[in-house]
């Protein structure tokens, strides 16, 4: 049984739209768990009134992404989930999204699967996974490499984001939950899927399953649009900082092969120190 875990904090309208897209799936063989981390905009009331079938877990506003997801996963496992999918609330699932993810999971029962992401405004693909060369800290965007005729089926990747990430129970039982202690918000999803791959679980981006996203609404994009000294500090050291140096260091020591670690760290630090002002 598939359980879809969605961590939310305010942004009620995004959550409503996301849940409506899940209600319109061609298969409804799943249960939704929403982790409401102390929302103050009426999210909890909206969930209870408009989506009574949704299971709700609540936080006090200090869970952030990783602990919120873990809270939902624990609930799903207690309920008997055989598969868990983590999903952000600022996505819209295509009508056959869940059906295609389940179909691919049936063919590859030990694989961790992500989805092709489209821009909600244009319908154009914006993210289809990537591979990472640890030696040079160079990321290779699959969308830039694959011709349109090959943008279907499963493609192996180094890691995956947590929005639309299908995880078999066997993976959770083998490597545990997301690393909320060291990676409370960003990089927890890339870390988790990297660890899963190293434990022998294939990691694929499923180009036949589509999610529509709002690229301009990501936390990192909003921070960069409001450049300031305070924003720069938050970028490098804040829990929600996309360039958080502590998180990057932990991710690197945990995942990068030791011979490549010194250069990988130096290159990554340099990118984070200057990248805030370049994007």
From TrEMBL:
GO molecular function, one term: glycosyltransferase activity
Presence of the UniProt keyword Iron-sulfur in the record: no
Residue stretches in coiled coil: none
Domain of life: Bacteria
Alphabetized Pfam families for the sequence: Glycos_transf_2
Alphabetically ordered keywords of this record: Glycosyltransferase, Transferase
Domain Glycosyltransferase 2-like: 4-115
Enzyme Commission identifier(s): 2.4.-.-
PANTHER family tied to this protein: GALACTOFURANOSYLTRANSFERASE GLFT2, RHAMNOSYLTRANSFERASE WBBL
Family per similarity comment: Belongs to the glycosyltransferase 2 family.
UniProt protein name: Glycosyltransferase family 2 protein
Phylogenetic classification of the source organism: Bacteria, Pseudomonadati, Bacteroidota, Cytophagia, Cytophagales
């Amino acid at each position: 049984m598939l359980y879809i875990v969605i961590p939310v904090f305010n942004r009620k309208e995004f959550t409503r739209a996301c849940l409506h897209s899940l209600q319109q799936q061609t298969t409804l063989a799943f249960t939704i768990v929403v982790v409401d981390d102390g929302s103050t905009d009426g999210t909890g009331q909206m969930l209870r009134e408009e989506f009574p079938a949704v299971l709700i877990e609540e936080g006090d506003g200090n869970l952030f992404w990783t602990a919120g997801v873990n809270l939902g996963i624990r609930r799903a496992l207690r309920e008997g989930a055989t598969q868990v999918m983590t999903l952000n609330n600022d996505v819209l699932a295509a009508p056959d999204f869940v059906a295609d993810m389940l179909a691919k999971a049936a063919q590859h029962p030990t694989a961790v699967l992500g989805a092709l992401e489209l821009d909600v405004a244009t319908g154009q693909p914006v993210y289809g996974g990537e591979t990472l060369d640890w030696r040079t800290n160079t990321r290779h965007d699959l969308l830039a490499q694959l011709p349109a005729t090959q943008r279907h089926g499963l493609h192996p990747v180094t890691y995956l984001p947590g929005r639309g990430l299908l995880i078999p129970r066997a993976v959770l039982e083998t490597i545990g939950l997301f690393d909320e202690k060291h990676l409370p918000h960003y990089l927890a999803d890339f870390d988790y899927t990297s660890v899963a791959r190293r434990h022998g679980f294939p990691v694929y981006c499923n180009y036949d399953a589509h999610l529509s996203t709002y690229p301009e609404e990501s936390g990192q994009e909003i921070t960069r649009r409001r450049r300031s000294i305070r924003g720069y500090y938050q970028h490098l050291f804040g829990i929600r900082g996309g360039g958080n140096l502590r998180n990057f260091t932990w991710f690197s020591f945990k995942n990068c092969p030791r011979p490549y670690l010194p250069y990988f760290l130096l290159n990554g630090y340099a990118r984070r120190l200057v990248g805030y002002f370049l994007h």
